[in-house]
Amino acid sequence: MSFQCAERQSSAEFALNPTEPETLSQTAAGFHYHLRAVREPSVLPRVLEMFALRDLIPYHVMCREVVGEDPELLIDVRVRGLEADHARHLAQRMRNIVPVQQVALDIQG
Predict the structure, then answer these.
(1) What does each C-alpha distance from 77 to 3, 9, 30, 33 come to in angstroms?
(2) Among the CATH numbers 3.40.630.30, 3.30.70.260, 3.40.50.1820, 1.10.260.40, which is that of 3-16+29-108?
């Protein structure tokens, strides 16, 4: 598992991007969640908890703080092992997290 953390003038990035095991099918459908949220410490754990409650481990997580007039967080999460309907349901649940302003879901593969 690789772990990267970088600080920048206008943003801080956190990326968790483990090396994928060879046994994992490279053609398996994956889902990429893009979130925009108000800058609050509880947002990232609350988003990740949605996956943990379903025994899912995302293979990529990135959170970037955008500093400006209205500070916000940009969060990207990639996961496999879901049905498309379940993935859409999770996106809808994320939209119900109060600081989350926008959720987009991309189907990969």
Answers:
(1) 15, 23, 10, 5
(2) 3.30.70.260
